[in-house]
Amino acid sequence: MTEATIMHFRQGRHHVNPKQMILKVADTAEEAEKSIGKTVTWKSPAGKEIKGKISALHGRNGNVRAIFEDKGLPGQALGQKIKIE
Predict the structure, then answer these.
(1) How many domains are contained in the chain?
(2) Of 18, 36, 66, 68, whose CB is crowded by the most CB atoms within 10 A?
(3) Percent of the chain with pLDDT over 90
(4) DSSP labels for 5-74?
(5) Closest CA to 36 of 14, 62, 54
(6) Average pLDDT of the segment spanning 64-68
(7) Is residue 68 over pLDDT 80?
(8) Residue 80: domain span
(9) pLDDT 10s digits, 27-36
């Protein structure tokens, strides 16, 4: 089990996708590619867990996209660590 850092919501010019997040997993795209398909879990300060799945690379600097099933992460999650299983 490893960790990643939550960087930002995936967004466009006029729209923010609350169920899609950008995660910093590794320093290179080759290392980050190994984590595609794995499950990510964020635990809130109240103890609730929100689960998602890593879907694809995001750029060439070791970032990946994670899509969460039922609800997205809150803004307080930005900059925090998330578990990769």
Answers:
(1) 1
(2) 66
(3) 91
(4) EEEEEEE-SS-EEEEEEEEE--SSHHHHHTTTT-EEEEE-TTS-EEEEEEEEE-SSSSEEEEEESSS---
(5) 54
(6) 97
(7) yes
(8) 2-84
(9) 999 999 999 9
One-letter identity of residue 11: Q
Torsion, CA 74, CA 79, CA 22, CA 71, rounded to 10: -20
Give the CATH number, domain containing residue 74. Answer: 2.40.10.190
DSSP assigned state of 32: H
Percent of the chain topping pLDDT 70: 100
CB 20 within 8 A of CB 9: yes
The three-class DSSP label of residue 6 is strand
pLDDT at res. 43: 94
CA angle, residues 32, 7, 12, in degrees to nearest 5: 100
Q: Between these two residues, 71 and 82, which has the higher pLDDT value?
A: 82
80 near 45, Cβ under 8 Å? no
